[in-house]
Amino acid sequence: MLENFSPPYNATVCQRLLDAGAVLVGKTNLDQFAMGSGTVDSIYGPTKNVWKCKAGGSSGGSAVAVASGVCFGAIGSDTGGSTRNPASYCGVVGLKPTYGLVSRHGLIPLVNSMDVPGILARNVDDVVSILNAVAGHDKQDSTCLTKPFKKISLFESSNYCSRLPPANKMGIKGLKIGIPIEYNCEYLSDEVLDMWDEIAQTLQNEGAIVKEVSMPHTQYSIVCYSVLNQCEVASNMARYDGIEYGYRADDDHSTEKLYAVSRRTAFNDIVKNRILTGNYFLLGRNYEKYFNQALKVRRLIMNDFDNVWEDAQLLLTPTTLTEAPLYSDFIQKTNRDQCAFQDFCTQPANMAGIPAVSVPIKLSKNGLPLSLQIMGRNLSEPMLLALAKYIEHLVQFPQYVNFKQK
Ligand SMILES: NC(=O)C[C@H](N)C(=O)O
C-alpha cells in the first residue's frame, strides 16, 4: 500500500534522533502495517533471525538489525508486543515506554490507544541513551504527556550498585518484585518457566522481596486485545482509499471500484481480515456486545495493575512463551492464532499503557535466546531499566555481535 511512499515530514522520534546527532541508517522490515508477531507477512518477504529462527515481530527487521550489529539501536513500534517479542527472539533489549512518553507523531497508526514507539538496542545503557533523546512532550501529539521528562541516568559512577536510581542505591535490597501467577499459562514452555523461577530466586538471594501476585483478568487479555485492535484497525485503515496517498489501482470506472480494487490489491490477508472483523464488531447491532464490552474488560485489566502496585514495585514475567520457532517450522506448522498467542505476556502492558522491557537472559538447549519481561507503573522507567540493567549484569547474556569490539 505504501510502496514508494516518501513521507513529507519526519516523525518526531526520527527528528529527535537527528537533532541528537544520530545517523539514520535506513528503514527496516516489518509485518504489513505492524500486524503480526513474526515479520513473515511483509511485502518484502520474511526477515530471518541471525539465530536461525523466526525473528519475531512485528518489528523483526529492527531487532535483527540490532542483533547483527548493523546499527547501534533501532526504533520499532509496540502495540501489543511488537518491540519486545522480536527483541526476545533476537536476544536484544526491547523497551515499550509508558504510553505518551514518546510522541506518536509521524508513526503510522495501528491502534492509537495502545501504540508507542519502542526502542531496541544490545544493552540497557544504549536503550537509555536513545530514550533520553526521543522522550518528552510534543505538541504535535495530543496524547503525549505534558509533564517534563527528566533524563534517566544509570551511569553515574563506576560502582555498579550506585548506578541504580536513588530508590535502589543499595542494589536491589528491599525492592518488591511481583510474580503474576496468571502469566504461567498453558502454552508456557518448561524451559521458559524454569528460567523465570531461576531468575526470581536469584533476585531474592540478592535481597529483593519476590512474591507471587494475582492478576485475575489476564486470561481475557488476548481476546480483549483482538477486539479492540481490530476495531481501531478498521477505522485507521479507512484512510488508504487509493486516492489521497498509497497504492492506486488502475481501475477508475467508478470511485467505489477504485477504492475496492486498490484496497483488495494492496492489503494482505492479515490486514483484510482485521478490517473485516473490526467493521463487524463496530456494526450498530454489535457495538455494545463487542467493542463496548472489550473496553470494559480493558478497564478490569488496568485495575488489576492498579491493585498490584500495592504489593509490588515491579513485575517479572516471561516475554514470549517459548523460544523462537525455527523459521521452517513456523511457516509450515504454526498458524496465525498460535503466533498471536506469543503476545500473551506482552499485550496487557499496552492495554494498561504501562512501561515494559524485555531483557535477554540465556540461550535455550537449542541455542536460541530466551528473555524475561519487567513491567512497572506509569513512568517508572528509571526503576524498570535499573532492574533490567541489574539482571543484565547478573546473567551476562552472550550477544550475537559485540558491536563495540567490532
Ligand atoms: N504492533 C504490534 O505490537 C502488533 C501486534 N503484534 C499485533 O499483531 O497486533
UniProtKB/TrEMBL annotation:
GO terms for biological process: glutaminyl-tRNAGln biosynthesis via transamidation; mitochondrial translation. Allows the formation of correctly charged Gln-tRNA(Gln) through the transamidation of misacylated Glu-tRNA(Gln) in the mitochondria. The reaction takes place in the presence of glutamine and ATP through an activated gamma-phospho-Glu-tRNA(Gln). The keyword Mitochondrion applies. It holds the Pfam family Amidase. Transmembrane segments: none annotated. The keyword Nucleotide-binding applies. Its EC number is 6.3.5.7. Subunit of the heterotrimeric GatCAB amidotransferase (AdT) complex, composed of A, B and C subunits. InterPro entries: Amidase (IPR000120), Amidase_dom (IPR023631), AS_sf (IPR036928), GatA (IPR004412). GO terms for molecular function: ATP binding; glutaminyl-tRNA synthase (glutamine-hydrolyzing) activity. Keywords: ATP-binding, Ligase, Mitochondrion, Nucleotide-binding, Protein biosynthesis. Residues 1-385 form the Amidase domain. The active site is at S58 (charge relay system), S82 (acyl-ester intermediate). It comes from Acanthoscelides obtectus. It is found in: Mitochondrion. GO terms for cellular component: glutamyl-tRNA(Gln) amidotransferase complex; mitochondrion. It catalyses: L-glutamyl-tRNA(Gln) + L-glutamine + ATP + H2O = L-glutaminyl-tRNA(Gln) + L-glutamate + ADP + phosphate + H(+). Belongs to the amidase family. GatA subfamily. This is Glutamyl-tRNA(Gln) amidotransferase subunit A, mitochondrial.
